[in-house]
Queue: 2 jobs
Job 1
Amino acid sequence: MPHDISTEDPQFKLTCLRHSAAHLMAHAIQKLWPDAVFAFGPVVENGFYYDFQCSHSITPEDFKAIE
């Protein structure tokens, strides 16, 4: 059974937010670089990350387009 997002547990709400943000970031990257292949993207203590591979090397200059 899915968790109830209406819970008052702030840590659970933060985990849900980070999980959703990871998916949004992956979607943005896929839109910008369609050859991107995603492997693993967990929520971690201070945010989230996604391991992926594509023909473009992401640099800080790309962050605005990803946002």
Job 2
Amino acid sequence: MNQLEQARIEINKIDEQMEALFERRMQATEQVAAYKKQQGLPIFDKEREQAVIEKNLARIHNQAYGPYYQAFLQHLMDLSKEYQVKLLDA
């Protein structure tokens, strides 16, 4: 097995773990949406999002990954907001 094949196997293992975590995160998003609906809160909270990004960026060990991780987090939160809109409009 060459280096590329080994790397792809590792990526596949990571993707499998990420899928399970993604589903858990989206289930938590359902709870967030229900709470926001009960409390009449808006879906978007700019200050909260910024705080989440900053907190998580501080955990990155390899700073070269920082901008990519920030984009990943932002996209994940955007998906969460999109799902909340769908849930609240239903």
